[in-house]
Amino acid sequence: MDRARILIIGGGVVGCAVAHAVSRRWQDVFLVEQLPRLGMATSSRNSGVIHSGIYYPPGTLKAQLCPEGNRLMYEFCARHNVPHRRTGKLIVASDSREEKELHALLARGRANGVEGLRLIGPAEIRAREPHIVGTAAIDVPSAGIVSAEDLVKAFARVAAQQGAEIVTHARVEALEPQRDSIRVTLRIGDDATAKHETIEADCVVNAAGLYADDVAAMLGNRSWRIYPVRGEFCEIRGPRAALVNGLVYPLPLPEGFLLGVHFTKTLWGTLLVGPTGTYVEGKDNYERNRLPISYFARSAKALLPEIEESDMQLSYSGLRPKLVPPGGKGPFDFVITRDPHVPQVIQLVGMESPGLTAAASIANRVAELVSEILA
Ligand SMILES: Cc1cc2nc3c(=O)[nH]c(=O)nc-3n(C[C@H](O)[C@H](O)[C@H](O)COP(=O)(O)OP(=O)(O)OC[C@H]3O[C@@H](n4cnc5c(N)ncnc54)[C@H](O)[C@@H]3O)c2cc1C
Q: Running DSSP on this structure, what letter comes out for residue 284?
């Protein structure tokens, strides 16, 4: 039986960022990922936007960790050659009612410490984005885009250089608290050759994304339930991708539940339209009953009247690990906490957007909790 000082469950961007942060300070760090490669779930099925932190209610973890994560993201990407670009972003109002909301959003962003925010008018919108129609916009200079896949790989590469052991094809099937440790049962390998192994870990980090509620339930903690909300994308390739130069968003939907269908110019010169938001059954339900392209064209026309259905093709989708049930109210913030009953376990639940942006700051917060556990 192996021993681990710290065992991280889940090799998405959050788990890999945690491995990177904790392997700087401790030895015998393990990360286990059930899929054949790292970052194959939500971490490679998102918009790849480096958010600024403007949207989140002041005082929430998202409001603190997103602006901090934004700064850490640019530093990490520059140091480790992760493809990224500080594009800036426009959040655009279409009429005077929306302009009122725009002012409220601007005040919120400033309260969250987001730097450089500025209100601009139609002439400046046209100069930046000639095809976008709006009466006013917030210019968000700290927003940008990153290659999420390369970011995950870079966190994992540096973690491994620092001594972390990263194992794919390794699924956690059981967690049993012992007196001073957690016994972790792993199923390693694919179906034909799979074998079971156990590891005794002093500290366990649950970074299992969509499955974080199931992993918590392995310890009898049923405090959370994750509801997958599918975000679907369309893509524009070729010359019509030039309809948008950078990042263009409408105002977010009420209560910050979703950011609204927006435009993202990718690092590869294509234009993403989306994501949408629909509750779905099943944590692997990426493709059943996809929305038609006409839906995207309708949603996009308010800001970009020239867009046509024929410009777009359906692209990938991703699942948000929402804690808010369909039609209901529920926790909106990230959950980053030591388990109340098994305090050697750190639970990361509801790690939806801006989890990619905030990964490094979430990881620093986790490292503080680890140091309490291992003190
Ligand atoms: C449509 C969409 C758009 C988004 N856009 C943005 C954006 O522009 N900017 C932004 O900041 N954020 C964005 N996000 C959010 C961001 O993608 C997530 O917050 C982030 O990827 C979460 O990472 P994670 O590591 O927690 O989860 P995941 O990437 O899901 O990783 C969890 C991993 O745990 C593994 N796992 C689960 N159970 C087990 C087990 N029992 N044993 C071993 N391994 C296990 C899974 O296989 C998975 O690989 C978006 C999300 C979606 C869905």
A: T
